[in-house]
Amino acid sequence: MKALKRPVLLGTGWLCVALGIVGIILPLFPTTPFLLVAVWAFSRSSPEMAEKIRSHRHAGKYVRDWEDQGVIPTGAKVITVVMMTAMFGYLHFGADAPAWMEIGTALIMAGVAAFVLSRPGRRST
């Protein structure tokens, strides 16, 4: 089992890098969360690759801010909450979802929104 750990982590890292690149191209597809998972996987399988992402001139700041202080930029918080609200609005008004699904979705989204909004919006000095 241990022999598979490194290849699985490397594969996870590269898959998440690829999904992060897709997120750069496609609107509304996230980039940073995939890069965070990639850094996590690479830190356990290829520390050099993890450091390349952490020191990237564009994405590295967001990754370092999250890893070091749990920062989620204010703009990202707004987008997250607005998109979750819109998706719940679609679920409630546009889909024929059962009540238990709406309630469960609302509870999960409220928990995620509470977490996102509880994080600092910028790095403390």
SS summary, helix count: 6
Number of beta-strand segments: 0
Q: How many domains would you count in the coordinates?
A: 2
What gap, in angstroms, lies between the N and C termini? Answer: 43 Å
The radius of gyration over CA amounts to 17 Å
What share of the residues does DSSP label as strand, in percent?
A: under 5%
Q: How would you classify the helix and strand content by structural class?
A: mainly alpha
Main sheet, how many strands, which sense, barrel? none
Please state the overall shape, judged from the principal axes of the Cα atoms.
globular
Low-confidence stretches: none
Query: Level of helix content?
Result: over 70%
* SSE pattern, N- to C-terminal: HHHHHH
Please tell me the overall pLDDT.
92
Describe it for me?
This protein has 125 residues and is mainly α. The protein has 2 domains: 68 residues; 45 residues. Helices cover 78% and strands 0% of the residues. The chain is globular, with a radius of gyration of 17 Å. The model has no long low-confidence stretch (mean pLDDT 92).
Question: What is the topology?
Answer:
Blueprint: H1 2-25, H2 32-45, H3 47-54, H4 60-69, H5 74-94, H6 99-118
